[in-house]
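Give me the 3D structure for Probable peptidoglycan glycosyltransferase FtsW.
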Amino acid sequence: MSFSRADRSLVGQWWWTVDRWMLAAVVALLFLGAILVLAASPAVATRIGMDNFALAQRHFMMLPLAALAILGGSMLSPRQVRRAGVVLFLMFLTLTFLTLFIGAEIKGATRWIALGPFSLQPSEFLKPCFAIFAAWMFALQKTNPGVPGNLISVLVFLVVIGILLKQPDLGMTAVVTATWAAQFFIAGLPIFWVLLLVGLGIAGLVGAYFMLPHVTERVDQFFNPESGDTYQIDRALEAFQNGGLYGTGPGEGSVKLVLPDAHADFVFAVAGEEFGLVVCLLLVVLFAFIVLRALARLLGEHNHFIILAATGLVTSFGLQAIINMASSLHLMPTKGMTLPFISYGGSSIVAIGLGIGFLLALTRRRFPGSVEA
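Predicted structure for Probable peptidoglycan glycosyltransferase FtsW (373 residues):
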């Protein structure tokens, strides 16, 4: 793709202002994700009675939508990002609430709304959109003290996590909470409230351990493997051992034949077995590059909304990647959470694409007189 710097078209201006290095890293993740889903999904599809490449085909059908979300989102101005994020937040908050009543129950949780042969998980879209809404509220508190933005953000946050816990979805709750807390901290939350929030977070995790049986089981298995079934994590660790430095080769892995969710929650283990430590480290580098690159682009930024929104989006993206990879390596209790752009997923990959599109838009170069927030 080549455009003259004098090109004033929408695409031309986008090309010369977007962070092309970050965009290249995102494209690399999408490409590696397509390869890994193609490698991991046939075994899973066969095991659940589907055609070999049925899951891969579904994934490839969602890739154009994810790409469209990335490109479309990245072409917006910060003001358009704010408006789109807030409107989408209200829409997906409503849909997430409706899952409690009309959601399809899968593995004891009601997080999905059936749409014919497909299903929509509204909370995946709620996650990046809430980061935009919270940033707007925190920024309003700074620029217009007459608006109780912090209070509104706190109240809406409580509503969001209340719905997520009701589904229940503790992993999503943890990511949303950490993202919101990071934004609140950057917005200038006094140290007393920081310590209070940390204390409440710890209390929430302890409460989840004692009140949610599946959380109790996973934590107990993490600290004492003999206390329960550790089949999935044992197979995941076996995959990494089999792969060694360079892997067994594409399609040559054996653990994916017996590892549940090898195409989704444990796709990192498939990468470890078939492509080895080298590719696993490449994935880590790509995720780290996107996070650090986005933060670096914010160093000279003075617009409160842009700083807070981009911080929230990149925190959510990076934290989700860390949780997935750490779970696969048994560095933390297992949690069903996709690896961004790498795991099989419909709602997940499109929602992450939307969040990254917003992030690319917020980190574009802007010039005097341009429309900001």
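The mean pLDDT is 87. Let me know if you want a second pass.
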